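ok new one. same drill as before - structure tokens go in, u give me an amino acid for every spot. 317 of them this time. try not to just spam alanines like last time pls lmao
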């Protein structure tokens, strides 16, 4: 867009140091108003004869009027005002706006055992807990093996049922069990969080994959962000903590793979605040770190929901 001459001069005022205070900004805006008014009057004088001729035209011309120059001029004025205001807010430290995360959480160390987090992290905003997590690059993955986190779907909470069926029962409705079992889920309906769809689950070789159990913090990611130094029992607890597990749409879970918040977020944007808060809570409970890109992505999500609260470990009463 080519700016009118007066507007180009007004935009030049943006580069001067005088607008960095509120009083100076007000003075500049008054100057801009006069400049835009002058541009408007000059254009109006040039267009007046033409508009006089248009008054005699037929109805066809009335249905397709010429665009008004003042509309463009006012749009330029609004853009300049917004640019000046943004510059002043940035220079005065008022923008970008950073929400107050609130106080950090209380932290306690429970007895080491299967079915216990490494740390009991008190309630706080997800942003406040994110500020307590170390920021580092990822460790090497070449020595990662799923078996480092123990047997898949063990009974970590000693309730008599394996973790997969615990989560299916927790997350689905209209749950039915196989004959003679109080644990093995045969069917149910999932209001799926990642996609916002409803998914029907039916146990079977070709049908069970429609609903999978996702590790919110993928085990491969956990391995590269601190889980290597945990004990075997602590890693088993991490892999089976209900805080880190969600029943999910099979294709969405496969798409996520081992991605962190910097590389994958749920397609359903309404769930992203909860999802990121869950990752942060899990990483705090098991002394994991975040990468710079991961932290930045989490901050962007939580910027839209700064009061989003953390979640406790699923092992806690």
């Amino acid at each position: 867009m080519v700016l009118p001459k007066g507007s180009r001069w007004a935009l030049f005022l943006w580069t001067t140091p005088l607008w960095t205070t509120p009083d100076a900004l007000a003075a500049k805006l008054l100057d801009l108003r006069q400049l835009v008014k002058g541009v408007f009057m000059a254009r109006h004088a040039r267009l007046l004869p033409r508009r006089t001729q248009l008054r005699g035209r037929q109805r066809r011309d009335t249905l397709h009027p010429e665009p008004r120059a003042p509309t463009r001029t006012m749009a330029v004025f609004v853009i300049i005002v917004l640019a000046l205001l943004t510059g002043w807010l940035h220079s005065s430290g008022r923008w970008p706006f950073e929400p107050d995360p609130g106080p950090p959480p209380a932290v306690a160390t429970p007895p080491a055992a299967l079915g216990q987090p490494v740390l009991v992290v008190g309630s706080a905003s997800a942003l406040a807990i994110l500020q307590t997590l170390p920021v580092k690059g990822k460790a090497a993955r070449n020595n990662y093996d799923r078996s480092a986190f123990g047997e898949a779907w063990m009974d970590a909470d000693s309730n008599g049922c394996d973790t997969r069926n615990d989560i299916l029962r927790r997350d689905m409705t209209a749950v039915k069990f196989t004959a003679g079992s109080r644990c093995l889920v045969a069917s149910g309906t999932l209001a799926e969080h990642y996609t916002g769809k409803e998914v029907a689950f039916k146990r079977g070789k070709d049908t069970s994959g429609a609903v999978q159990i996702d590790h919110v913090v993928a085990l491969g990611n956990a391995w590269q962000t601190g889980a290597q130094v945990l004990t075997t029992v602590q890693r088993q607890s991490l892999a089976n903590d209900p805080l880190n597990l969600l029943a999910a749409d099979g294709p969405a879970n496969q798409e996520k793979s081992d991605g962190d918040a910097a590389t994958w977020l749920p397609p359903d944007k309404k769930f992203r605040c909860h999802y990121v808060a869950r990752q942060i809570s899990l990483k705090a409970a098991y002394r994991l770190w975040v990468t710079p890109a991961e932290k930045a992505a989490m901050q962007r999500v939580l910027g839209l929901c700064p009061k989003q609260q953390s979640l406790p470990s699923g092992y806690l009463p």
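Residues 228 and 285 are 15 Å apart (CA to CA). and btw Strands lie at 107-108, 120-121, 172-177, 185-191, 198-202, 211-215, 245-249.
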